[in-house]
Design a protein that fits this description.
Blueprint lengths: L16 E2 L2 E2 L10 H13 L4 H14 L3 H16 L1
Antiparallel strand pairs: 1-2
Length: 83
Amino acid sequence: MERPEKDPVGEFARGMGCPLGSFTKEVKTYIDETTFDLWLKRCHKANCTSSELLRDCLYILEHGKTPSELSADDRRALLQSEG
């Protein structure tokens, strides 16, 4: 599946992170073909790669928010404290 172009603003690159730290640890697993096909469809619908969606899922499970949401909260708090 081809991935549409995304606006790079706000996107995280390898080695970058969120207020909790840099993305430096790898998470890897194996799944069956049917689940993999369903996962790829979900990634395509979300307009992201498998790694991006898996990262978001892990952060939602552990922190209740995606890395982007955590960063936005951090920036919001900074802006409100300066206002």
